[in-house]
Design brief:
alpha+beta; Nucleoside Triphosphate Pyrophosphohydrolase; 3-stranded antiparallel sheet
Length: 166
């Protein structure tokens, strides 16, 4: 196994049927909240296997309905993490998944990777993410999960004065 990370990773948006999203605070960057992410362990590892493995390692979650969103992002690796990759590697390819779990699913963090976890409504979770690609993925959740975003209260037109004469 190489000492360097493979520049192919997964992003797994873990959510409940009510579209509450699980976010994790990074141990190596306190204040940085994100969904589950992680690189392939070896070049031939299947995307779904990587997603399941990373979810299990980072959260202890073993069940749920995993859906490949067939969405890939390519982004420049943050300078603070560039040394984890082979010299000359500047970009990472990320495959996005959704994982629907039951409300109240227990979470057990890997303390070397994450400090805290929280469940947030999908829009608030997107706002809390430090990564633009993570925020964009969460914003797609209502569509990807087959649910419409919560409706705004309808605006009632002003009442019209009665045209009847007394």
């Amino acid at each position: 196994m190489s000492a360097y990370k493979i520049p192919e990773s997964v992003l797994v948006v873990i959510h409940t049927p009510a579209l509450e999203v699980l976010l994790l605070e990074r141990a190596d960057a306190p204040g940085f909240w994100q969904s589950v992410t992680g690189s392939k362990d070896f070049a031939g590892e299947q995307w779904a296997a990587t997603a399941r493995r990373e979810v299990g390692e980072e959260t202890g979650i073993r069940g749920g309905e995993l859906v490949d969103w067939a969405l890939e992002n390519v982004y420049e690796i943050y300078p603070r993490w560039a040394a984890r990759y082979a010299p000359g590697v500047t970009h990472n390819r990320e495959r996005v998944f959704g994982l629907c779990v039951a409300e109240g699913t227990p979470v057990q963090l890997a303390p070397r990777e994450h400090l805290r976890w929280q469940w947030l409504p999908w829009a608030a979770a997107a706002d809390a993410c430090f990564s633009p690609s993570n925020a964009e993925a969460i914003l797609q959740l209502p569509h990807r999960a087959g649910a419409a975003p919560p409706a705004q209260s309808p605006v009632q037109p002003p009442a019209r004065p009665s045209s009847r004469q007394p």
